[in-house]
């Protein structure tokens, strides 16, 4: 009677091939940015729902999310946001937040999320601590921030100091033109 056994070299070859495939997968993920992942998913699963803010009845497919985040990224770039910039983001739970996050990721900017319930003093601390160059604030919080907080008018100190700009044009969510407007402010 003959007994066939797997040769040790055959098993070693299979293990080496499997490890090689694993290394290739890890390398692919290590070199893929969040912005690239969003675009890749839009190509492979464009019509699938990517974001569902069920409390508000807001949805977006992967293709819409990719298209809107590209649009936001172009607008933010035109405003001056660049790779490595820190951007304070103070938005309520709505569909614009993840889309804005992906837009900033596509630019290579860093999101510094700010809780909508923070006091002006806490917001000022977050913006200062993160060294945010820009702040995107929901319109419902702008009045308080302009009056009492970090966006309040202060005397300018030299060229390029503390410039405020209204970023309403082209910023509203494509599905809800009347919903909240956003304001982007260049840091001090």
Short summary of the structure?
The chain has helices at residues 8-30, 34-45, 62-79, 96-107, 120-130, 139-148, and strands spanning 49-53, 58-61, 86-90, 110-113, 134-138, 164-165, 182-186. The chain is α/β, with parallel strands linked by helices and 188 residues long. The chain has a five-stranded mixed beta sheet with strand order 4-3-5-7-6, sandwiched between helices. Strands 1-2 form a two-stranded antiparallel sheet.
Description:
By secondary structure, the protein is of the alpha/beta class. The chain contains 6 helices and 7 strands, in the order ααββαβαβαβαββ. It has helices at residues 8-30, 34-45, 62-79, 96-107, 120-130, 139-148, and strands spanning 49-53, 58-61, 86-90, 110-113, 134-138, 164-165, 182-186. Strands 4-3-5-7-6 form a 5-stranded mixed beta sheet, with helices on both faces. Strands 1-2 form a two-stranded antiparallel sheet. Helix 2 runs antiparallel to helix 3. It is elongated and about 75 Å long.
């Amino acid at each position: 009677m003959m007994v066939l056994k797997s040769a040790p070299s055959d098993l070693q070859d299979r293990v080496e091939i499997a490890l090689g495939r694993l290394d290739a997968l890890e390398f692919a993920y290590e070199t893929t940015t969040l912005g690239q992942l969003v675009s890749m998913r839009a190509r492979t699963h464009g019509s699938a729902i990517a974001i569902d803010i069920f409390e508000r009845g807001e949805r977006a497919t992967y293709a819409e999310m990719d298209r809107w985040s590209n649009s936001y990224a172009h607008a933010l770039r035109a405003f001056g946001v660049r790779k490595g910039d820190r951007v304070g983001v103070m938005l309520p739970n709505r569909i614009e937040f993840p889309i804005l996050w992906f837009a900033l990721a596509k630019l290579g900017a860093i999101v510094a999320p700010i809780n909508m319930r923070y006091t002006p003093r806490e917001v000022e601390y977050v913006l200062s601590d993160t060294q945010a160059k820009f702040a995107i604030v929901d319109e419902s919080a702008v009045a308080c921030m302009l009056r009492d907080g970090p966006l309040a008018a202060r005397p300018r100190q030299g060229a390029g100091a503390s410039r405020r700009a209204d970023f309403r044009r082209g910023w509203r969510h494509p599905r809800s033109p009347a919903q909240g407007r956003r304001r982007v402010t260049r840091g001090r």
